[in-house]
Amino acid sequence: MTEPLRGVTAVILAGGRGRRMGGADKGLIPWRGRPLVDHLIDALTPQVVEVIINANRNRSEYARRGWPVVADTLSGFPGPLAGILAAMTAARTPLLLTVPCDAPRVPPDLAVRLFHALNSAEAEVAVAHDGRRLQAAHALMRTALRDDLERMLAGGERRLTDWLESRRLVTVDFSDHPLAFLNLNRPEDLQELDTAAS
Question: With contact defined as beta carbons under 8 Å apart, do 18 and 50 qualify?
Fold first, then answer.
């Protein structure tokens, strides 16, 4: 079993509106009898030294997990970039691992593989690739990018992929974990996740 990477904080991005899920707070949706956020915490705590939860609703409920909860500093649910900015501001480590709250099957080696690729390539960001497409919300990035991200958001940037591709980026092949990036966008996706996980 690998030890947590001491220079890495993880953020669970749970700050969205959940529009396609009928407005539900996706991080608190139950899966296998427990909220999604709990599955993510279990997967991440062996890999990193600290977990931050980015949430704009139900913050007291998230805080019951014992980890810091940070809200977007920008109003109007502007998307994952705002959550990443809030986490970069709160993090005390030089690296931030990002994961979405609606993809509970986090690879057990997500952090370490992204970490090695980031350093080998001398990149600013390492992003998972599932063999078919980039999984932009599963990324490891340097918190020193905070000021650049703040400027991009102030300039109206909202697309995570566009910001990532503006940085020194390395992609990391996770095609050996084909189910890891299944996420919940619609209520019917819960059944697909259960089927894939069985």
Answer: no
